[in-house]
Design brief:
By secondary structure, the protein is mainly α. Helix content is 62%, strand content 0%. It starts with a helix and ends with a helix.
């Protein structure tokens, strides 16, 4: 969140939404029921490695989070 605040200058508070709140919203918005099913992806760390792939084809290009966010925000503001 710090990187985004730095890039955008956003200063307002940010609140989290609990799994229970999402379940409640799911009563009225069916797609939110599906969000509860995939919450494990953000509750437990998922570590992806391109190590095997890099051994076969060489180094993969990468972009820092900050640069990626800056470019994405610039694209969205077009």
């Amino acid at each position: 969140m710090g990187i985004l605040r730095e890039i955008t200058g956003y200063k307002k508070g940010v609140r989290t939404v609990s799994k229970g709140m999402i379940r409640l919203i799911g009563i009225f918005t069916p797609s939110m029921k599906e969000v509860v099913e995939i919450l494990y992806l953000i509750e437990e760390p998922v570590i992806l490695s391109g190590e095997k792939f890099e051994k076969e084809i060489g180094a993969l290009p990468s972009t820092s989070y900050k640069v990626g966010l800056e470019e994405t925000i610039a694209w969205m503001n077009k």
